[in-house]
């Protein structure tokens, strides 16, 4: 009986201990959960923001292609208008020639019907051509040449308008993809509590403060090296020193903390390629404000030879995000609406997985 009571008391004591441990194990994660949730949410949102930014660059690419095609369409339409005006002017001369031959009474009767229906076709007949002077034949040839050019231009117009229609459809798809990624990111953020949002806001404020300090320190270093005739941006990823690269890097650093926008309106807001194009524009170098075109406009160099002012590209085989290397393993990037223009590791964990290569600006 005593043994049984001891076992019972022992079992009760063990049960109480397990319940206590369970309560502790539940309470501890409960206390740490907000931070864990925040980290998970921030990681998911960053991925979605990155996908949205990449999709936005692809959308911008299609819009640029569409603008090019529209320029072609406008040019072809202008050419067609000129050809039609020339045809109207030439038609009077052609009709006059046909009537003159008819009035001379030397036309084969079988051609008279053709004359009534189409004077130009009538004049093309060999028997009619024999009765024309050299200058009159030249008039007819010009008429025929203009007609051929008009037909060719109308065929080109139809092709370009078909291409524009396809690009417009693709642009709509790309824009829908951007909006979908943005909506997904907002849905993820909506799961956070007010307290968690406050934590994120505080983290971002501190991050912006630290990055502003980093950017200011880097800019002062460039100025000091420029004043002392420092290096000109040799290999090893150090400082840009003097020259065009230094001007570009200084401009990038001066924008740290600026907002990012999918519909960027510089200098009030930026996207990735508009920022790098504006920075190199400070040195008189014209880069197209599209990441994939900047990829084509720069020369590939290995990471081991990277130097400040070089552009760094991301998203694997594509080039749908671009930033500028500013030295000491850092880049300035117009990243997304949450982070804005930031100074970060150019091969940090998230970016390393998506790294495409380094591009050196030539010219």
UniProtKB/TrEMBL annotation:
One Pfam family cited in the UniProt record for this chain: NLPC_P60
NlpC/P60 domain segment(s): 242-362
Key words of the record: Coiled coil, Hydrolase, Protease, Thiol protease
One BP annotation, GO: proteolysis
Record region (Disordered): 211-242
Gene Ontology molecular function: cysteine-type peptidase activity
PROSITE patterns assigned: NLPC_P60 (PS51935)
Bias kind Gly residues: ranges: 226-241
InterPro entries found in the cross-reference section: NLP_P60_dom, Papain-like_cys_pep_sf, PG_Endopeptidase_C40
Coiled coil: 38-79
Similarity remark: Belongs to the peptidase C40 family.
Protein name: Unannotated protein
Organism classification: unclassified sequences, metagenomes, ecological metagenomes
């Amino acid at each position: 009986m005593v043994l049984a009571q001891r076992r019972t008391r022992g079992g009760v004591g063990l049960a109480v201990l397990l319940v206590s441990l369970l309560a502790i194990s539940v309470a501890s994660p409960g206390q740490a959960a907000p931070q864990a949730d925040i980290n998970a949410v921030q990681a998911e949102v960053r991925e979605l923001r990155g996908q949205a930014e990449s999709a936005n660059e692809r959308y911008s690419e299609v819009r640029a292609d569409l603008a090019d095609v529209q320029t072609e369409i406008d040019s072809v339409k202008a050419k067609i208008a000129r050809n039609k005006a020339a045809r109207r002017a030439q038609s009077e001369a052609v009709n006059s020639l046909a009537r003159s031959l008819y009035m001379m009474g030397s036309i084969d009767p079988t051609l008279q019907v053709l004359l009534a229906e189409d004077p130009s076709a009538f004049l093309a007949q060999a028997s009619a051509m024999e009765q024309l002077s050299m200058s009159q034949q030249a008039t007819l040839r010009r008429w025929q040449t203009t007609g051929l050019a008009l037909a060719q231009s109308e065929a080109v117009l139809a092709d370009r308008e078909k291409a524009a229609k396809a690009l417009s459809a693709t642009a709509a798809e790309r824009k829908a993809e951007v909006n979908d990624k943005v909506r997904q990111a907002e849905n993820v953020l909506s799961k956070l509590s007010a307290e968690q949002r406050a934590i994120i806001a505080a983290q971002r404020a501190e991050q912006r403060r630290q990055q502003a300090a980093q950017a200011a320190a880097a800019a002062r270093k460039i100025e000091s090296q420029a004043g002392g005739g420092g290096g000109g941006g040799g290999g090893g990823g150090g400082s840009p020193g003097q020259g065009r690269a230094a001007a570009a890097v200084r401009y990038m650093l001066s924008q740290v903390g600026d907002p990012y926008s999918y519909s960027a309106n510089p200098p009030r807001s930026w996207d990735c390629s508009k920022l790098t194009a504006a920075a190199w524009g400070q040195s008189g170098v014209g880069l197209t404000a599209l990441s994939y075109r900047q990829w084509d406009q720069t020369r590939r160099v290995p990471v081991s030879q990277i130097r400040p002012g070089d552009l760094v590209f991301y998203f694997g085989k594509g080039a749908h995000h671009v930033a500028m290397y500013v030295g000491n393993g850092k880049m300035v990037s117009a990243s997304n609406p949450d982070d804005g223009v930031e100074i970060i590791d150019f091969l940090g964990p998230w970016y390393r997985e998506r790294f495409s290569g380094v591009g050196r600006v030539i010219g």
